[in-house]
Amino acid sequence: EVQLLESGGDLVQPGGSLRLSCAAFGFTFSSNAMNWVRQAPGKGLEWVSGISGSGYTTYYADSVKGRFTISRDNSKNTLYLQMKSLRAEDTAVYYCSKDRPGVTTPHYFAYWGQGTLVTVSS
Amino acid sequence: EIVLTQSPATLSLSPGERATLSCRASLSVTSSYLAWYQQKPGQAPRLLIYDASGRATGIPDRFSGSGSGTDFTLTISRLEPEDSAVYYCQQYGSSPSFGQGTRLEIK
Q1: Which residues of B touch A45 (CB under 8 A)?
Q2: Alpha-carbon distance B3 to B26, whole Å?
C-alpha cells in the first residue's frame, strides 16, 4: 500500500525558511517522479514543484522559482522541499504526491499524503 | 500557462441524478492530458480520472470523463450522498495547473 507522510510544517515569519519532508512507503521510490502541491486555506490546489525519480531533473511553478528547492534522498525514500524567503501567500497545506508511473516530467498526482500546514505570519 | 475554468461553481442535485461538470482550457491540452480529482473536507484530493477518460484504480464506473482539445467533462451518474465534495480538473500537457473547482452538493 502506498503511503506518503509529510512533516515539517510550522509557523514561520515572513522572510524565513523551512524544510518539509515526505517519507514514502509501499512502492519503489527511486523509480517514481514526485511532486509538491499546496492549498491555501479555503482555496484551490496549486502545483508547486516536481522531481524525476533519479533527482536529476526538477520543475517549479513560477510563483516559487528561485525561492524553493525540491530534492530527494532515494536511499531514505524521502522527498524534501526547502523553502526560503517565505511570504504570507505561501501559507498553505503542502501535500506530497506520487506521479504516474514511468514518467520524469510532472503528470497527474496518483497518490497524496495527508498534508502539512505551513503558516507564514509575524 | 494554461488556465482552466470550471463550471458551474456550485451544483446541487439529488441522489440518483446525473452530474455534469465542465472544465474549459485556455489553450488546447496536449494529448488530452487532463485529470479530475475529488476532495472532501479535511481530506487530501483523490484521483478519479486521468488522460481525460481513464478511470483511476478503485474508482466506481459511475464516474466517467470525456473530452479533448479545450473542453472536458466529468460525469457522475446515479449520484450518492458520499459524492458530495469539491471536484478539480488539472492539466499536465504543460506546466501543471488546476481549475478553481466545482462544489457538488447532494440534497
Answers
A1: 37, 39, 45, 88, 90, 98, 101
A2: 5
